[in-house]
Amino acid sequence: MKITRSLSRKRDYAGRRQVMLRLTIDHYRQHRLKSGIHVPDSWWHADGTISAAGHDTLACSRAAGRLAALETKIYELCAATPREMLTAAYVRERCGLSASCLGRGLSAYAEAYASTRSLSESRSRQYATLARMLARFERSCGHPAQPECWNAAMVDRFVRFLSEEHTTGNGTRPRGHNTLCSIVSRLRTVLRYAAASLGFEPRPIASQGELYGTPFFLSAAELRALSDADMSAAPRLSEQRHVFVFQCLTGVRLSDLQRLRPHCVHEGTLEYVAQKTRNARPEAVRVPLHPLALAIVRSLAGRDPRGRLLPCLTPARYNRYIRAALERCGITRIVTVLDPVTLSERHRRICDVASSHMARRTFIGNLYRTAKDPSLISSMSGHKDGSKSFARYRNIDDSLKADLIMQTFPQTHTI
Question: How confident is residue 177, by pLDDT bands cut at 50, 70 and 90?
Answer without folding.
Answer: confident
